[in-house]
Amino acid sequence: MDKMKYLSRIQIFEDLDLEELKKYEPITPIKVVEKGTVICSPHMDQKILYLIKSGKVRLYRLTESGKELTVDILETGHVFGEIGTFTTGSENLYAEAWEDSVICRIDRVQFEKIIRENPSISLKLLEIISSRLKEVEELLEYMAYSSTRKRLLFLLNKLTEKFGDKLSSSSTEEWIALDIYITHQELASMMGSIRETVTALLNEFNAEGIVRKSGRRGTMEVHSVRLKCALKEEG
Q1: pLDDT in tens, 42-81
Q2: 3-class SS shares of the chain: helix, strand, coil, % to 5
């Protein structure tokens, strides 16, 4: 396992050279987290910054009725958690491994040492926080004021931007495969709906040529142009 390769993928470390990365290798131990494991929650007293070296992590909150509402799915290179006055916009959220993932933790003492040596890292963290808060605000606005159809279109568009893999064939250049396995129930959780509603809407989108399934595992593919047009038509 090449730890330098993993560290170079982390957003806050991506501008550092090899020698600088080597200094932080001992304080960023690797831990494999199995799918479904809750990595952190609002009830944990210790404040930790988590780095995703590989895999995906789901951030969610619990509604008053105890229902899970997925706020974001983070992939390799992303950070979450908080340390003292430093936060990544994921405070008061639960973080769960969406798939088997490689995660490392940095506590407050370690992180303060890192930013003293490399002040640019704190600026990088601020960029990450600003971008994530903007995404979350946009998501919550859609969830609160849009129809279920528009919410699902918006969600599919976001997933395409984050996990899309454009198909190589020229005849399918507008079709994008989602590099993430996601069930109808999980989509429902992300948009504050129910599985039956999501299934009915996906059937509609399939008939309209917006989505399709491919392969044994049912990889979802999205027609990017039709998706954006449908989203625009919703107003």
Answers
A1: 887 667 888 888 899 998 888 777 777 788 888 887 888 8
A2: 45, 25, 30
Joined tokens for residue 213: 């399934």
Residue 108 burial (C-beta neighbours within 10 Å; 0-12, 13-18, 19+): middle
Nearest Cα to 224, choosing from 232, 215, 216? 232
Nearest-angstrom CA–CA distance, 186 and 189? 5
Q: 81 has which bridge partners?
A: 49
The DSSP 8-state label assigned to residue 13 in this structure reads G
Q: Which of these, 173, 151, 185, 189, lies nearest to 221 by C-alpha position?
A: 173
Task: Give the pTM.
Answer: 0.73
Handedness of CA 81, 83, 88, 92 (dihedral sign): positive
Tokens 């299934």, residue? 199
Count Cβ atoms below 10 Å from residue 31 Cβ, excluding itself. 12
